[in-house]
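PROTEIN DESIGN WORKSHEET
SECTION A - STRUCTURE
LENGTH: 59
TOKENS:
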């Protein structure tokens, strides 16, 4: 089964030079446990500045 990062579908993702580097919640870099879906970011976690996952496809 192929699983993609939850970050791919998030409105807060910032892509720099074609690479996923950071997001509005984690401007210094997305923690691996969030990027690799070990921790879902639909609730606040330490260090996210109160910004959580927002589905890019929602209206």
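SECTION B - SEQUENCE
RESIDUE ASSIGNMENT:
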């Amino acid at each position: 089964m192929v699983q993609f990062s939850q970050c791919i579908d998030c409105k807060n993702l910032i892509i720099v030079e074609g690479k996923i580097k950071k997001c509005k919640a984690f401007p210094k870099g997305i923690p691996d446990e969030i990027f690799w879906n070990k921790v879902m970011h639909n609730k606040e976690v330490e260090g996210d500045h109160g910004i959580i996952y927002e589905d890019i496809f929602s209206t």
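SECTION C - NOTES
The first strand starts at residue 13 and ends at 16.
The mean pLDDT is 93.
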